[in-house]
Design brief:
32% helix; alpha+beta; single chain; 226 residues
């Protein structure tokens, strides 16, 4: 049934890039990926993370690329409208790449960007083009406030990142219920997130996947038997 469901989703294009961060793409990855019944961490990462080249990373909002055009004025007073009405905004690297295909560097220099880096840092200005950070104008700060509000909504006011962190922790530690869960001793060559997957009260060596260890001895790797 799983394979039939996966093929049905593929025929409808749920595996394409356009569905990556939509519920359809998440359902497809949950159906396609094979995780153990107790591995809820990977499933939670798919539900709340952001798809980046097939992997669900920490949820971060899309980068906004923007440039400011001529000021739009009010009819009666001719005063400028709110500064945000003068901006052209493109959301996401893919959309910006499509827009600027074939442009020269002078045309690109009109644009600035604000987004979130790999380490969660807020990136502003023209550093995307390799130049120095020029800072933000008074009008740019209005756009920044809008971006920060959008970021908070995207992150479900902090809940989404918290849920992702819980899923990542569970996926790394791989704690199988009703098992020994003993970890390799420090200095034995193993990792603290390796938990013995054998039943409680077992005799002999502890085991995590193809790694085995005895208390007081180094961890050894035993290749899987074909």
């Amino acid at each position: 049934m799983r394979q039939l469901a996966v093929r049905w989703m593929r025929r409808r294009g749920w595996n394409t890039a356009g569905h990556d961060n939509w519920p359809t793409g998440r359902v497809y990855h949950l159906a396609r990926d094979r995780h153990r019944w107790w591995d809820w961490g990977h499933r939670l990462m798919v539900l709340v993370g952001r798809n980046v080249c097939g992997n669900y990373d920490e949820p971060t909002p899309e980068t906004w690329f923007y440039r400011q055009g001529p000021a739009k004025t009010m009819r009666r007073t001719s005063y400028p409208r709110h500064p945000l009405s003068t901006y052209q905004i493109v959301k996401g690297h893919a959309a910006f790449a499509d827009l600027t295909k074939g442009w020269d560097e002078d045309a690109l220099d009109e644009w600035q960007a604000m987004g979130v880096g790999q380490d969660g840092d807020l990136l502003l200005g023209r550093r995307y083009w390799g130049g120095a950070f020029y800072g933000l104008t008074k009008d740019d700060t209005a756009l920044l406030r809008r971006y920060l509000r959008s970021w908070r909504r995207f992150d479900w006011f902090g809940a989404r990142s918290w849920l992702y962190a819980q899923g990542l922790h569970a996926a790394v530690h791989q704690r199988k219920p009703l098992t020994c869960q003993e970890v390799p001793p420090r200095g034995s060559g193993g990792y603290s997130h390796w938990h013995c997957q054998r039943r409680r009260g077992h005799g002999g060596d502890h085991q995590f996947n193809n790694y085995k260890w005895t208390p007081g001895e180094p961890v050894r790797h035993e290749p899987a038997v074909a």
